[in-house]
Design goal:
The chain is mainly α. Helix content is 79%, strand content 0%.
Length: 117
């Protein structure tokens, strides 16, 4: 199952910004963009709440909300990518946990609605 740690590692591999740099208070553009990307992925791929994401990245939930909105404005094209990742994560989880087709369908529809919002 994908975790916030996994998402942070993936964003680190893509951007070179480490988890500790994402968690610190530095507002350098590259770090800000990387942390907002990780927040958006955590929200869409894991269905994590804003407080959960905030605890992991050491930020207030309102900061997480604003950051995800900024990433959505900056990269509207990522919605399809996030939906594909969410579908892949849901399928892996369904196989691992023996989840039925209906539960998988519900998870996929949630991901689709998030991507359309």
């Amino acid at each position: 199952m994908t975790t916030m740690q996994d998402i942070a590692a993936q964003v680190t591999a893509e951007t070179g910004v480490t988890l500790e740099q994402m968690r610190d208070l530095d507002r350098a553009k590259g770090r800000t963009a990387a942390r907002q990307r990780a927040w958006r992925q955590a929200r869409h791929r894991l269905g994590a709440s804003f407080p959960e994401i905030g605890r992991f990245f050491r930020r207030d939930p309102s900061t997480i909300i604003a950051g995800i909105r900024m990433d959505e404005k900056r990269h509207p094209d990522r919605a399809a990518e996030l939906m594909e990742l969410a579908i892949r994560d849901a399928a892996k989880l369904a196989v691992r946990k023996g989840v039925g087709v209906e539960a998988l369908h519900n998870r996929l529809m949630d991901a689709y609605r998030e991507a359309q919002a």
